[in-house]
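User: I want to check something. If I give you two sequences, will you return the structure for each one separately, not as a complex?

Assistant: Yes, each is folded on its own. Here is the first sequence with its structure:
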Amino acid sequence: MAITGRAVLAAFGATLVVLVAGPVGSWLVTAVLGLLAAAVLADVVLAPSPRRLRFERSGDTSVRLGETAEVALVVANPARRAVRGVLRDAWAPSAGAAPQRRPVRVPGGGRVRVATTLAPTRRGDQSAAGVTVRSVGPLGLGARQCTHTVAWTVRALPPFHSRRHLPGKLSRLRELDGQHAALVRGQGSEFDSLREYVPGDDVRSIDWRATARRESVVVRTWRPERDRRILIVLDTSRTSAGRVGGVPRLDHAMDAALLLAALAGRGGDRVDLLAFDRRVRAQVRSHGRGSRIPQIVEAMAPLEAELVESDPAGLVSTILGRHSRTRQLVVLLTDLNAASLEEGLLPRLPALTSRHLLMVAAVGDPRVTAMAAERGSTRSVYEAAAAERTLEERSRITAELRRRGVEVVDADPDNIAPALADAYIGLKARGRL
């Protein structure tokens, strides 16, 4: 049972009567209060029961972060009496549901459709918490209330801001692939055709046997190999929880991974995904050609950074256990933390780089670079010293990784996605992939 605002005002008025009338009129006040209580009770009894209502949901089941989704709720009243009152369709706060409350009237034997707009503020599954209906009596003094469980889940997907870079990167990739005029030479690339030598061609591409049969120098043209395997590894350990520009490092890594996956998929390569910290959090395996972007996006959506240390030995073992006989490009999106990499990944690099080509990509913090340039006060000088040390360690671990044959991409949040795509295209251009 629920008491409405009108009933509260009536009780307040009765209390004033008691204060004014005093002992002489107490019997009258008692009678008024009794009548009021009887009216409220009768109103509650006469209010249609909201328990008999039936609910159905329909609408969107996924939405990109930053966009809106609509979920419809159909309320059916199997009874003969109309139900009027207030309906609240409750969701988690991060779902951004609106409106939260609305007046509703469901005629007897009828159905009413109400819509809720969701604007999620974080990735992951947003679930409905319940539908509460307050059925008001004919006098508006009392009401009955009931909460129904009406399950529905909307998955908030990564926003993929770097999608705007995809057309330009695809154009560059097609130039390498021979769909435009530019064909390149490189170790491990597929032979395409023969043509006459022009100034600027690499002399190593000259085909001497074909040249001997002709009167002009002939060179071979090559195109990058297709159907290569690429494994994108997301580090979901505690370092990925750090915020860069107000956004978790893991989210920046996801955006870069999506651009790379879309580019490589369009280029004819097979793209797999692995999310790992101390165990596998998510994985997507490619089977034949075709884009795996929808599956990768779905796998990324519920991922959160885990506040645990990473397990490099377990990661390397997991990678080597997948397609162990096939050489692939392994792209590890992590943090260039000198301490963790020196103790964890570096000792295990030989086992990984002997069988696969490894690329490490990391999101740099522009604020650290800005701090290193500050000299305005004593505090800023100390901060600059700490920032300089961080940058020096970052540069040192980058140099060490490159010395061991690892490709390294280190860029700020705005540039990490296109920089990673450029590094992939560069490997294609040099024939390393």
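And separately, the second sequence with its own structure:
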Amino acid sequence: MTTARLTVDPRFPIGAVRRRLFGGFVEHLGRHVYDGIYEPGHPEADDQGFRRDVLELVRELGVSMIRYPGGNFVSGFRWEDSVGPREQRPRRLDLAWHSTETNEVGLHEFSDWLEKAGSELMLAVNLGTRGTLEAIDLLEYSNLPGGTALSQQRIDNGRAAPFDVRVWCLGNEMDGPWQLGHRSADDYGKIAAQTAKGMRQLDPSIELVVCGSSGAQMPTFGEWERVVLTHTYDEVDMISCHAYYQEHDGDIDSFLASSVDTDRFIEAVVATADHVGAVRGSDKRIDISFDEWNIWYQTRFHDVDQLSGIDNWPVAPRLLEDVYSAVDAVVFGSLMISLLTHADRVASASLAQLVNVIAPIMTEPGGPAWRQTTFYPFSITSRLARGEALRVQIEAGTIDTAKHGTVPAVDAVATHDSETGEAAVFLVHRGRHEAVEVAIDVTGFGNVELVETHLLHDDDPYAGNTLEHPDRVQPRALEGARIEDGILRATLPPIAWAALALRRVG
């Protein structure tokens, strides 16, 4: 057994834990919307056709803000198709995912669903095949109380009060050659700046997210951020980051260290944004919207026959329905640790996606809904992380990885709410050969007690939850965890994620 010593103290804050850090993402892709959140003939369907069992799980997940309607989908989307009487809405081809979009669920219906889910709307505009005018029109339709043709159209369509959308994404992954309307950094920066200025003329109070590079591995990365922010720095609030991880060729050690890449990615984007601000002599700070992140086995997606052919455009085909394992959930939990570790600059984050499509929630048409393994680190962290994120001093062993070099075997972050006296420590053990005995100095919190513990681990790291066995992998209490003389002691098995909740006594 190895050992690790950690020190947590509220005198070393990182930044406030913003609730938008626990956001999600719903795209019109595969069975996410249709047969996912919306299935009118299902026994659990409400009067609008939304599945109550799915809504209950989304609420349990604790999703604060949901990005919509894409994703790649948005670059071919005409927002006008998604409003008005359903029977008059056109069926359209979705070129991004080679499917047919029925537009049964549109802006009004999805907003109703969000209210039931208790989540805020983050809306993306199409800067792929459309432009500034269409974005301003959508903003006017959504946020203006009344008095114009577009706001009256919204009222006539059944929504008297504005949707009051606060956060807007200026397109999606515009450096990706797969994207409809793919542009150079210079061209995208110009249209993004123009669109941002126009939208702010209508509603100066909105928050705007400009597209960063589609990933740290893109050849455009770094220079794309610099050029785009040079055009848009004064007009936007955040720049997006997207990152997906998977195990490659049995290299589990590198996979377990994926959050090291996330840390480097965030820090590189922050450095680039701050560089642009320094060159401009600006005291404004650009934050990060990490609005796509997850485990995604893209090799599985590309290994199967692709939908193709001019006469083959199915409605809601089964796409990207990854089944997640225990090790996937451990890595997932470590990615959440990275987001909290950068709470000073990550203003929002969106788990991509929520239901069926690389998702923590799965459904079967006419059948049940269940939690994937990745559901648990998200739901537990979103519930326990409050107040401020705290930097954790870690003394632990290391593991060698082919992709990320030598990395700590243990990673951690803590949160603390000074008003309630509640605190939480989130831990990941990347080692896969032996357990680690962890000693956490929590004397900085004063007199505290341990109120709940959660351990996510399975002796078979590749075990998952399926339709046949929906509860195969679940978190359990961390046996033996205790506080002795201000030291929180616990033993983590190999490949494990844990959360420990504390409360001030007296």
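Because they were folded independently, the notes below concern the second chain alone. The mean pLDDT is 97. The CA atoms of residues 77 and 465 lie 34 Å apart.
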